[in-house]
Design goal:
Blueprint: E1 7-9, E2 12-14, E3 17-19, H1 29-37, E4 41-45, H2 68-94, E5 99-105, H3 111-120, E6 128-132, H4 139-146, E7 149-154, H5 157-166, E8 178-181, E9 188-190, H6 204-217, E10 225-228, E11 249-253, H7 267-273, E12 281-284, E13 292-296, H8 299-309, E14 311-313, E15 326-330, E16 333-337, H9 339-350, E17 355-358, E18 363-367, H10 369-380, H11 415-423, H12 441-444, H13 456-464
Helix pairs in contact: 1-2, 2-3, 5-6
């Protein structure tokens, strides 16, 4: 393999290998600090980061507020306190080596106050911010105010061009890198646009080359592109090294660092990674953010698939539309559906899906009673973990009375609850298990044979070798 040289990232020459942020508690101070200590860029996830008590135990994020706005304020404070603790841990473990980044999702609830609150209390400890899941126009302003570099996560040259022209050019000196996150390969939330087909993956090379062309047009030849999604064996990307069409390039690893000794995910999750087969990762659109995302197709995703499958359009009154003239009764509720749909509905009821729930799109879904109870309770317990949530209809905008203006959507789920559950040892089948589409390599890569779990240093040494 060609030589793999260091690169200036966030103000220092480091190995151009970056730990992906990965959301709730899937990276923390321990993993990020170890990654930086090995000479790369460690990333602390500041999405509802864990805090610890004096005995080192995780402080449960329990909500006491009676209203969503009260609980949202608690969520923001939990996020700030946990983020500060994890950044300080990462800094101590790194020992002055590498770089420490923090990762936030722009569409998470309270993104700005959480980010500001963490940076206010960690001056000199954070070198960069990575941020995606939306169009974070204010990211550059926040980064410049705190004198840290910013690394927007985008999935197309067009998205970066919009961000640069509308906002980033005003603080361009703090642009540390541009993360291209491949929407068909990366785990977690993906930036597929309406013009792109989720079933037709595109080669990342021409998309990244187009990004470099745009960046060069803006005078950003010196700014590295960070390739994220689908990166496993570095040798597979050798043709990107020293390539003028690509320019300065670094690689972000999200999935491989999950299976390290320093990774904070539960042991059961680590064990399950080595059992995955190609095709076990599903690109779906059930997230309450409205974005596509990639995760292991487990019982949770199959349940969500079932909800959408057991769905028919309806009208509340007869005669509103001629096609909706057939009456169907589900429990104590009466609906008017199309004639061909009545037999479907009654068949689902016979299968035990005897509870109807309305969606914001003039359709209804059929679920069992236990599922309906859980959906309603999760919606009731909402603490505003997103800026807008289609599952609970929460919006953090006070001008809209903290509502999206649409009904709560039972076809989605509480992502905060699910990610917190899996990160802290709850069921792998009933919660959301994010993973990239190359996760099946854990099963076949000889590096992990005989149950071997590397340290972060051992993993990085392996990556640098090409394998």
């Amino acid at each position: 393999m060609k030589s793999f040289n260091s690169l200036n990232i966030s103000g220092s020459d480091v190995l151009p290998l970056i730990e992906g942020g990965k959301g709730i508690s899937a990276t923390n101070g321990a993993s990020a600090g170890a990654w930086a200590a090995a000479g790369g860029v460690g990333t602390v996830s500041c999405v509802n980061a864990d805090n610890f008590d004096e005995n080192g135990n995780v402080i449960p994020q329990i909500y006491h507020g009676k209203t969503r706005t009260d609980r949202h304020a608690e969520l923001v404070q939990y996020g700030i306190d946990g983020g500060i603790r994890q950044v300080k841990d990462a800094h101590d473990i790194a020992g002055g080596k590498g770089r420490i980044h923090i990762n936030v999702l722009w569409e998470m609830g309270g993104a700005e106050p959480v980010l500001e609150g963490i940076l206010d209390e960690t001056k000199g400890l954070v070198h960069g911010i990575t941020c995606g899941a939306g169009m974070p126009y204010k990211l550059s302003e926040i980064a410049a105010d705190h004198k840290v570099f910013f690394h927007p996560i985008i999935s197309s040259a067009r998205a970066f061009a919009i961000l640069w022209k509308r906002a980033y050019k005003n603080q361009g000196e703090w642009l540390g890198g541009v993360v291209y996150e491949d929407p068909w390969l990366a785990g977690g939330h993906n930036g597929l646009s309406n013009a792109e087909d989720p079933l037709v993956p595109e080669d990342p090379y021409p998309r990244v080359a187009a990004l470099r062309t745009i960046m060069n047009k803006f005078g950003l030849e010196h700014v590295p592109i960070i390739m994220a999604g689908g990166v496993w064996y570095l040798r597979d990307w050798e043709h990107w090294f020293d390539n003028p069409e690509i320019g300065a390039i670094a690689f972000q690893y999200g999935t491989r660092p999950l299976l390290t000794q320093e990774s904070p995910i539960p042991q059961g999750w680590k064990d399950s990674l080595t059992t995955l087969n190609e095709g076990d990762i599903s690109l779906h659109r059930f997230s309450p953010t409205g974005f596509y995302s990639s995760a292991v197709r487990n019982n949770l995703l199959r349940q969500l698939e079932g909800r959408s499958h057991r769905q028919v359009d309806f009208r509340r009154k007869a005669g509103v539309e001629e096609a909706f003239s057939t009456e169907v009764v589900i429990g104590k509720k009466k609906y008017f559906v199309k004639e061909d749909d009545k037999s479907k509905v009654l068949g689902w009821v016979d299968q035990g899906f005897n509870t109807s729930m309305r969606t914001p799109d003039d359709s209804l879904i059929l679920v069992n009673e236990n599922e309906a109870t859980e959906i309603r309770q999760d919606q009731k317990d909402c603490m505003g973990c997103l800026s807008q949530c289609k599952f609970s209809n929460w919006s953090q905008n006070p001008d809209t009375n903290y509502s999206t203006g649409r009904g709560a959507d039972p076809r989605s789920f509480c992502i905060q609850k699910s990610l917190m559950n899996i990160a802290h040892g709850e069921s792998l089948e009933e919660n959301l298990m994010f993973a990239g589409h190359t996760a099946f390599n854990f099963k076949t890569d000889p590096f992990y044979s005989n149950g071997f779990v590397p340290t972060v240093q051992e993993l990085m040494d392996r990556i640098v070798s090409g394998d």
